Amino acid sequence: MLEHISVNPNIHFGKPCIAGTRIPVQNVLELLDEGHTFEKIIADYYPAITVDDIRACLQYAIALVAAEDIHLASSTA
Questions:
Q1: Strand partners, 6
Q2: Distance of CA 64 to CAs 41, 48, 74, Å?
Q3: pLDDT tens per residue, range 12-61
Q4: pLDDT for the residue numbered 75
Q5: Under CATH, which number does the domain 2-67 receive?
Q6: Which of 60, 62, 47, 53 has its CA nearest to residue 16?
Q7: Ranges of each domain in the chain
Q8: From residue 69, how far is each of 31, 58, 66, 74 by CA, in Å?
Q9: What is residue 68's predicted lDDT score, i.e. its pLDDT?
């Protein structure tokens, strides 16, 4: 699925986009966060993308979180 995502330093300052478009992954994720369905995103915002492209955006976000090293510091009052 991640073949649907590309990173090009000359497009949106190197932010990940849906491959073959200038549509940032972040924009798609924000629409999902607002409660839009895959179908509504395609019909109303980005008719050039597919359900698989949207799924790839989610998988990309999951892969980023999975690769993160999180170091929580406890605070003492």
A1: 17
A2: 22, 25, 24
A3: 999 999 999 999 999 999 999 999 999 999 999 999 999 999 999 999 99
A4: 65
A5: 1.10.10.10
A6: 60
A7: 2-67
A8: 27, 19, 8, 16
A9: 82
